[in-house]
Amino acid sequence: xxxxxxxxxxxxxxxxxxxxxxxxxxxxxxxxxxxxxxxxxxxxxxxxxxxxxxxxxxxxxxxxxxxxxxxxxxxxxxxxxxxxxxxxxxxxxxxxxxxxxxxxxxxxxxxxxxxxxxxxxxxxxxxxxxxxxxxxxxxxxxxxxxxxxxxxxxxxxxxxxxxxxxxxxxxxxxxxxxxxxxxxxxxxxxxxxxxxxxxxxxxxxxxxxxxxxxxxxxxxxxxxxxxxxxxxxxxxxxxxxxxxxxxxxxxxxxxxxxxxxxxxxxxxxxxxxxxxxxxxxxxxxxxxxxxxxxxxxxxxxxxxxxxxxxxxxxxxxxxx
Length: 320
Fold this sequence. Notes:
The chain has 2 domains: 20-133, Immunoglobulin-like (Sandwich); 141-319.
């Protein structure tokens, strides 16, 4: 009698256990900026019939049902809330293996607590999972700083060079104002771009910000030519080399920009920074070069004037 009672207790225990579906435990899912879609996992371990015609699945958000699958109906019925039109099983054929995971588009995915309720014949199981957002900047913080610093430094070096040329060689006021405004445009665009670039996420605003920082740098290439033209009658070979290097730096920066602007996880930021760094280096060398050339001429006369004035004197002698 005692053995029989123990036997019945064991059967009851097994019967109670078999009345519940066992679901795999997931605490949370992280959704980042690069997700086109989000997978909400729901996996049942102990299905018995392995037949979708004996299954009913419900997905809820905060207790409100937004997706369901009725395998008992003929044909099986899928229902979804209008807010979650992208909701679908990761794989309907795998539902018979206990995989009731749901896929949602990132735009429709709402942060919060989701629950998956699965029924197979007279057995039920439920799993809950929290959808969280993983925040972060598009580029690494160090990359953000390098991108903006290199660009602003390039513009500042240009303005310093412009100031020296204006003082040493003299520039008409109108041209001086025009050249100064051109440099300030580059700085202003870079600052506005940085404000748009820094916020967390990978958005259109971030992409516009990066464009405002990198693309206006092209202005600095012809500006360097203008400054050399103000100093030299004909730019020497070294000045031409500096112009070519500055243009090359801009091309490299644009290549890095093109490879990064549409990438949610940009891997080529170093290429962009390298291009901007070359522009900076050329700006420093050009500044030092112009200063050295300037102090090699007396009476604040640039090479242009040093060549022009003897020619003018020769013309005057011939006329006499």
